[in-house]
Design a protein that fits this description.
Blueprint (H helix, E strand, L loop, with lengths): L1 H17 L8 E14 L2 E7 L4 E8 L4 E11 L6 E10 L6 E9 L7 E5 L9 E5 L5 E7 L3 E14 L13 E18 L5 E21 L2 E19 L7 E23 L1
Antiparallel strand pairs: 1-4, 1-14, 2-3, 2-14, 3-6, 4-5, 5-10, 6-9, 7-8, 10-11, 11-12, 12-13, 13-14
Length: 271
């Protein structure tokens, strides 16, 4: 997370360089579509089981790389043509496959020396629990975890700054345009864990996006682009392990995702 903080601290300075005052130009609207690949970093997953009064951390859980795709619409200001705003919507699927991870288990309120439990196998919840003595310190053990399906929709709202190169009468805003952007995002995610009676839990969370890319115009109103985006959000949801709902496991995690993609955009002059 330290590298992510450094990235967001550096973005305002980089954007201020891109957004130096430039001659007025025609305002410009664009729409685009893109496809690529997403890479979600390993993350700790925290589990809190209400029935067994237990806290467990699955350390460095890995997520699948996945295909991603989406679209966006943006607007470059006429009176400040190096500054724009855009809205994007894309989807990626960072599923959790079966794997064995180091797991730290501790009680949430039991005194030292009492009997606690250690999971024999974890399904992003604490089932198949085995009694074990617990001396008041977290118990660390490798534990296999089962598959969980995870789908994420990223609705981003970005402020974007650009540089404009290769300007001429046909391309007054430049044929080559490197750009940077950042802004808040709303993440709509769903997780399905089949051992929990195939239960699916949805969550809506606030996060952030940061992006960098380069655009090249192949026609006055058509461009192609390559882009990198980093997104971050934290999510928290509850799963009921019984039909009666008497036992609940809370699952929380951070998702830090890197995306590389390319696409095509259509531009319109706005008078």
């Amino acid at each position: 997370m330290r590298s992510a903080r450094h990235l967001f601290l550096a973005l305002p300075l980089a954007l201020s360089v891109l957004l130096l005052r430039a001659p007025a130009a025609t305002a410009e609207f664009y729409i685009s579509g893109y496809v690529g690949e997403s890479f979600t970093q390993n993350s700790d997953v925290t589990l809190k089981d209400t029935t067994f009064n237990l806290n467990a951390t699955l350390n460095s859980v890995s997520f699948d790389n996945s295909f991603m795709g989406g679209g966006k619409a943006g607007y470059w200001l006429g009176f400040f043509p190096n500054l724009g705003i855009e809205v994007s919507l894309d989807r990626f699927i960072p599923n959790i496959d079966q794997q064995t991870v180091s797991t730290s288990v501790s009680s949430l309120g039991l005194p030292a020396g009492v009997v606690a439990v250690v999971p024999r196998r974890v399904t992003l919840g604490l089932n198949n629990l085995v009694p074990a003595t617990f001396g008041g310190f977290p118990l660390v053990a490798p534990v296999p975890i089962d598959k969980a399906d995870l789908s994420v929709m990223d609705l981003g709202f970005h402020v974007v700054g650009r540089l404009r190169f290769l300007q001429d009468s046909s391309y007054p805003n430049g044929r080559l345009q490197p750009y940077l952007g950042a802004g808040p995002a709303i993440f709509f995610s769903s997780m399905r864990v089949k051992p929990f009676h195939n239960e699916r839990e949805d969550s809506t969370d606030l996060g952030v996006d940061a992006l960098a890319g380069v655009k090249y115009f192949v026609h006055k109103y058509v461009s192609v682009f390559a882009e990198y985006k980093f997104s971050h959000f934290s999510t928290n949801r509850n799963f009921d392990l019984t039909f009666s709902g008497l036992r609940t496991t809370n699952v929380s995690m951070d998702l830090n995702t890197h995306q590389l993609y390319g696409g095509i955009a259509v531009h319109f002059d706005v008078h």
